[in-house]
Amino acid sequence: MHPIGQNLALLTHLNQNYSLLNNQLASMLLYIDESNSLVIEIVFSLAETEKNKHLRLKFTDVVEYMFYYKSDYTHYTVRRLKFLHEEECFYFCIDPEDELPKVSHTDKDIIRARNVEGFLL
Fold it and tell me: Which of 33, 76, 99, 113 is the most buried (most CB within 10 A)?
């Protein structure tokens, strides 16, 4: 596991070096950490890299999340994406209503967290 950054440094690194578009969500893990805060870890399969096959995003101090699953659809292939820094949180959405760089109340499959770390696997 190779760390690639956290918080704003991660956001910058991903924007410059990796695209999650057309990649698939491989796994998602939710748990409560030792400080009684929700943690969400998401792993994406990276189709366009040879060295690192997966990217893990670890969201800590999660304040909100909402995901919907229905077996009739391809499971979480990322077609559009929002990864933004709000005032006190990072906003991550893999099913946004639009491509505008702002939060929309109609976005789906979202995570809001105070911290996020990234790792190549």
Answer: 113
